[in-house]
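INSTRUCTION: Work out how this chain folds

Fields: amino acid sequence; protein backbone structure tokens

Chain under study, with its fold:
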Amino acid sequence: MNKGTVKFYNNLKGFGFIKDDDSSKEYYVNSSGLKENIQENDKVSFDLEEGKKGLNAVNVKRS
């Protein structure tokens, strides 16, 4: 389980980006990968899954 911070999230469009605390990489997150609602600057935990354009954050929940 990775930990990071929500850098951007658009509730209307249902997508955003999470910055990993360890690697500083940013991962795409879609509303389908959320376990609960998130907002910008929330601390979250997440798993990574291979998507069409690279790794995506899934099973995202506030920590």
